[in-house]
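Tutorial, part two.
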Amino acid sequence: MKLLVTGGAGFIGANFVHYTLQHRPEYQITVLDLLTYAGDESTLEAVKDQITFVKGDVSDAKLIDRLVETTDVVVHFAAESHNDNSLRDPWPFIRTNLVGTATILEAIRRFGKRLHHISTDEVYGDLALTDPSKFTEESPYNPSSPYSSTKAGSDLLVKAWIRSFGVKATISNCGNNYGPYQHIEKFIPRQITNILSGLRPKLYGTGEQIRDWIHVDDHNAAIHAILDRGRIGELYLVGANGEQSNKKVLETILTLMGQDKAAYDHVQDRPGHDQRYALDTQKITTELGWEPRYIKFEEGLRATIEWYTAHRSWWEPKKSAVELAYAKGGQ
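Running the prediction step on this input gives:
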């Protein structure tokens, strides 16, 4: 079975490659990645002899046609994915998330292949902190940033190609991932690497915003459940019932790393900051029998801290540039 993984040098994509090689050796994997700032070929160093790596752009139609024609399944991770960056410059998000997905879809349609499209819970907008409800597969889209808007648009493109052209595709919308190889601009690795670097962690606003956290290995196990047993044309929400406020996450990190849980600074909140994400995962657990391994958030967080502590050489060269970019924005 030949598998094309777009964005496979990024955080979730690279972990998916590692997970697949470990648990599903029947797959022959080709990774496509443009190696922008969030893509890092070193994430695949340990498995480079077990995969085929292609540097390229998902919006390059000739390249995509060539790769899709010779594969069986495409798992489409490639995306620009940082809210702050989308507020500074939306255009890379439009090109990759919208044009890139349309390019993939046209190749899938042309050659009759199978697609799984990776998306985010941020397409649904947010819930009030006092709202007990959760997003379901039927929740209306209501994105609030250029990033989430372009991801919502990419989902709608997939849905349209399924309905209009009969492409064989599924979609998953997942909560906030954490784990190894996550770019240190993201919330959890930024806090961990700040502490390891002797810097005080930073918290947007009051930190009351709630996210539905899931370890990346649990997410990737869910993707394989969808590839194996998911119904073509369906969308599945993927989460681990990991609702935590940003403040609680940061204080837990500090505690697990032997620091005073109050040893952080508040900074100016992000414009249009979503308040709460929460996913109802009954569909995937009931239909496909998938359940997360890291049921206790602290267990997965401790493993993540251990990984960043043991792999300083992976993230330290990037640290100064990341913190400089945040400092320019007063964050």
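Residues 2-181+214-242+274-294 form a domain with the Rossmann fold fold (CATH 3.40.50.720). In part three we will examine how such features are distributed along the chain.
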